[in-house]
Amino acid sequence: MSDNYCCPESGKTASTVIPMVCDHSGRNEQDRSNELILCPACQKEGDHVRNVTVRHLVKKELIARAGQCDYRICMNEKCDVAYYSENLSIVFGKEDLKVPLWYKEDASPRYACYCSRITEEDVIRAVREQNLTEMNTIRKHYDPEAKCQCNVKNPTGKCCTNTFKEFIKKALAGRSNKK
Ligand SMILES: [Zn+2]
């Protein structure tokens, strides 16, 4: 199954894409990645995101505020919070990021792949006009040199494969009942 993913080692540790400011200090004092920590705004459970991912995605002037700690990402489409630190002392709203979070209800554009900047519209076009239905074919169609950097480009820090496939599925479904 792993060879269907765009990241050779999906979910594994980051490779060095740009210098990782926080890596010399080692891990957090305690690993809280399995702990349940709720979003301070909507009280829904957030997914663990490493500090390096957050640093790559918040606006330049906010990077210093991100500190060294790990974060949670709020996956609630209606909530304005993007990231919150595990001790809840730092919160970044979705407008604090350089890119929109694809699943938030007002996201525009909606990126299927943040590495190659392929949007939902691009996926729909590839499916309907080019008859492409495989993620990797679509990715190559738009970005022949595509390199996967999901660990720092995707806001979740994880591989975009599942989201990408959802967009393809949606595009295919829309194709049959012609818009
Ligand atoms: Zn929230």
Structure description:
It is a single chain. The protein is α+β, with helices and mostly antiparallel strands. The protein folds into 2 domains: about 20-95, N-terminal domain of TfIIb (Single Sheet), CATH 2.20.25; about 110-175, no CATH class. About 25% of the residues lie in helices and about 10% in strands. It contains 5 helices and 6 strands; from the N terminus they run βαβββββαααα. It has helices at about 50-55, 120-130, 135-140, 150-155, 160-175; strands at about 45-50, 70-75, 80-85, 90-95, 110-115, 120. The strands form 2 sheets. A 4-stranded antiparallel β-sheet has the order 1-2-3-4. β3 and β4 (about 90-95) form a beta hairpin. It starts with about 45 loop residues before the first strand and ends with a helix. Zinc ion binds near residues 39, 41, 42, 74 and 79.
Please name the defining characteristics of this protein:
binds zinc ion, four-stranded antiparallel sheet, 179 residues, alpha+beta, 5 helices, single chain, N-terminal domain of TfIIb, two-stranded antiparallel sheet
How is this fold's topology laid out?
Layout: E1 47-49, H1 51-57, E2 71-73, E3 81-85, E4 91-93, E5 111-113, E6 118-119, H2 120-130, H3 135-142, H4 150-153, H5 161-176
Antiparallel strand pairs: 1-2, 2-3, 3-4, 5-6
The protein binds zinc ion.
Zinc ion binds next to loops.
